[in-house]
Automatic annotation (TrEMBL):
<feature type="active site" description="Proton acceptor">
    <location>
        <position position="444"/>
    </location>
</feature>
<dbReference type="GO" id="GO:0004148">
    <property type="term" value="F:dihydrolipoyl dehydrogenase (NADH) activity"/>
</dbReference>
<dbReference type="GO" id="GO:0006103">
    <property type="term" value="P:2-oxoglutarate metabolic process"/>
</dbReference>
<feature type="domain" description="Pyridine nucleotide-disulphide oxidoreductase dimerisation">
    <location>
        <begin position="346"/>
        <end position="455"/>
    </location>
</feature>
<dbReference type="Pfam" id="PF07992">
    <property type="entry name" value="Pyr_redox_2"/>
</dbReference>
<feature type="binding site">
    <location>
        <begin position="318"/>
        <end position="321"/>
    </location>
    <ligand>
        <name>FAD</name>
    </ligand>
</feature>
<dbReference type="InterPro" id="IPR016156">
    <property type="entry name" value="FAD/NAD-linked_Rdtase_dimer_sf"/>
</dbReference>
<keyword id="KW-0547">Nucleotide-binding</keyword>
<keyword id="KW-0676">Redox-active center</keyword>
<feature type="binding site">
    <location>
        <position position="312"/>
    </location>
    <ligand>
        <name>FAD</name>
    </ligand>
</feature>
<dbReference type="InterPro" id="IPR012999">
    <property type="entry name" value="Pyr_OxRdtase_I_AS"/>
</dbReference>
<dbReference type="Pfam" id="PF02852">
    <property type="entry name" value="Pyr_redox_dim"/>
</dbReference>
<feature type="binding site">
    <location>
        <begin position="180"/>
        <end position="187"/>
    </location>
    <ligand>
        <name>NAD(+)</name>
    </ligand>
</feature>
<dbReference type="GO" id="GO:0005737">
    <property type="term" value="C:cytoplasm"/>
</dbReference>
<dbReference type="InterPro" id="IPR023753">
    <property type="entry name" value="FAD/NAD-binding_dom"/>
</dbReference>
<dbReference type="InterPro" id="IPR050151">
    <property type="entry name" value="Class-I_Pyr_Nuc-Dis_Oxidored"/>
</dbReference>
<dbReference type="InterPro" id="IPR036188">
    <property type="entry name" value="FAD/NAD-bd_sf"/>
</dbReference>
Amino acid sequence: MKYDIIVIGSGPGGYISAVRASQLGKKVAIIEKYSTLGGTCLNVGCIPSKALLDSSHHYYDAVHHFEEHGISVEKPSFDFSKMVERKENVVTTTTGGIKYLMDKNNIDVYEGLGSFEDATHVKITKSDGSSEVIEGTNTIIATGSKPSTLPFISLDKERVITSTEALKLKEVPKHLLVIGGGVIGLELGSVYKRLGADVTVIEYAPKITPTMDADVSKELTKVLKKQGMKFNVSTGVTSVERNGDEVVVKANNKKGEEVTFTGDYCLVAVGRKAYTEGLGLEKAGVKVNERGQVDVNDHLQTNISNIYAIGDVVKGAMLAHKAEEEGVVVAEYLAGEKPHIDYNLIPGIVYTWPEVAAVGKTEQELKDAKIDYKSGKFSMRALGRSRASGDIDGFVKVLADKNTDEILGVHMVGARVADLIMEAAVAMEYRASAEDLARICHGHPTYSEAVKEAAKAAWDGKPLNA
């Protein structure tokens, strides 16, 4: 079989790229080595983790907040197996939706491991050992990433686990040790903390969410500590040992002293790395960089002109929505269109509660670039909507150019900021000023009023409700 475009990998980047290419008249095939479509995000990442986050959030509210709303219930309890079953049902429905999209858009789906025979031929090795070869004028590599570890850690995937296993535990840990205070560690730590586990986070950097704005990290640390999570920053892990049902983690703290942590499970959440195993890149002549990522130019084109790569397998933030945008860009580029992607405007989100969201530059990045800026900040506590719901933690911060008033970055901690951040992204896409955002009439009472107020604070220093 010959195709205009072969896509290897069916995660958010791969399947969206395939759909867009088909919409633009291309004959498309997609190859997926697993029996379900959707990649890490839909199967063992974004979707199942959000399902467990929502279930655990409902339980946490029942235990801690129902009474203040005048709701009396018997002592709440939970059935963890039912939570997991619900999560699996959400995953099954969502991955089934991808299969529907493939059928709807006449995309041929091949199940098996895709590997290059040369620059235009891809071999598909099936689970029974049989194989076939298909030909593509262009190929898009969308094989994603897998969890990273540290060289001295042996992952047994039972007690010393990655995010994949953390989503499939049969029990709630008594004490979950989390190595890594980034998005994955904090989200999964939150799930099990809400369900009664002790959670200790060990982070090498001086703050959690180390790539985010310092004010965000500080606020998130405060509210998660209030929920009972423990944090050890500036702490470098030196060993992880399992003894039966116990895991012992040794580390050096910021004073250089050895400290020991003991738990029944240890989640290793130190990031992810590009997944290129078995692709046969050398047969096609495709180059990878020093980090093992597929090397691409501004058009996401590899050094082999008819082969492209997108998502976690290339440089940049490892985010499902970044992969989707890149998939669309490549599909449109191959169809002769002139798409663009602004990497500065890809939002970053942490689905703890309160949520965290950001787009654009942090204060430190502006300082490092020697850009004169002004900052406006508004507390969620001052919002009528936040007080009505009881979600008073957090803030919105708007950073704007000191001379032009153009919005350069927006950082949020609070209820539903994962959705709210897109107001900032849209404003920045159109290069709005802080004054522009401050002068837009926002519905009352809404969480979005915090954006208006923070923008006004950045523009003239005079928010109306603070």
